[in-house]
Amino acid sequence: MSVEFSKVVAGKIRGNGGTFSVQSIDLAQLGEWSSPVEVLDQFRVRSRPFPPHPHAGFSAVTYVLEDSQGNLRSRDSLGNDVVIGPGGIVWTQAGSGVIHEEVPADLDRELHAVQIFVNLSSKNKHTKPRMFRLAPSEVPEWRSKTGDRVRVVVGSFAGLVSPLVPVEPFDLLDVQSRREISFDLQDGHNAIVYVLEGRITVEADGRTQDLTRDHAMTLHGAGPLKFQASEPSHFLVLSGAEIREPVLAQGPFIMNEPSQVEAALARYHAGKMGQLSPLADS
User: Fold this and answer.
1) b/e string for 106-127 if b means 16 or more Cβ within 10 A?
2) Which domains, and CATH codes, for the chain?
């Protein structure tokens, strides 16, 4: 089976540009090949822009980039309240519903991170909510003799397997490259490549596509992918099984149909997603 390329999409800046700014990838421009990822945002924040809020039907993922000045504080209605430093991750598998809040642990230090919403298939939209987390030191790292490094945040790479195992298979690789790395795209999976710094060339089936800072593309099919860095580069590879089901993203919920959104909203208002009070100094 061959590998198909999407077009290249540039990130768009939104937010106030001061205490809170977001560079968002418009996944709608990448089409259905972005599935199961529904949101991909790189953000910088020194404030608490959002109070506690519910989620259901997907996983809300925050990966703190290694150059972040500050740590992430993540709380939820399951009773979790954790602080994760640069290079760590919090994966909130909302499932049937949970209330959470994520803020900089110290408001005087900028938090730099990537937020990803990973859709759940219909069979898991009502799975029991759960938080997964990894401290930076718990993320396996692969290194080459030529200076390439891959942090296996979720999933597997070159025989290394992340201890974070969500309900549905997913790969989140954080790559620092000076030469090249290869990645095998599984049949039925899609991959998003998002460049944070530098310039790379994506190659598959004899085709190539250049990708520069703040740009992303998707790949669909099955087979080996090669990423060649023409300068020291930093990029993410996100890969998961394509969900071929209707997607209805409405507010904080991602479901298949309106009745499911209405049911999730009813659960929230009835207190069935638990409670989470705002921080005292919010």
Assistant:
1) eeeebbbbbbbbbbbeeebbbb
2) 3-269 (2.60.120.10)
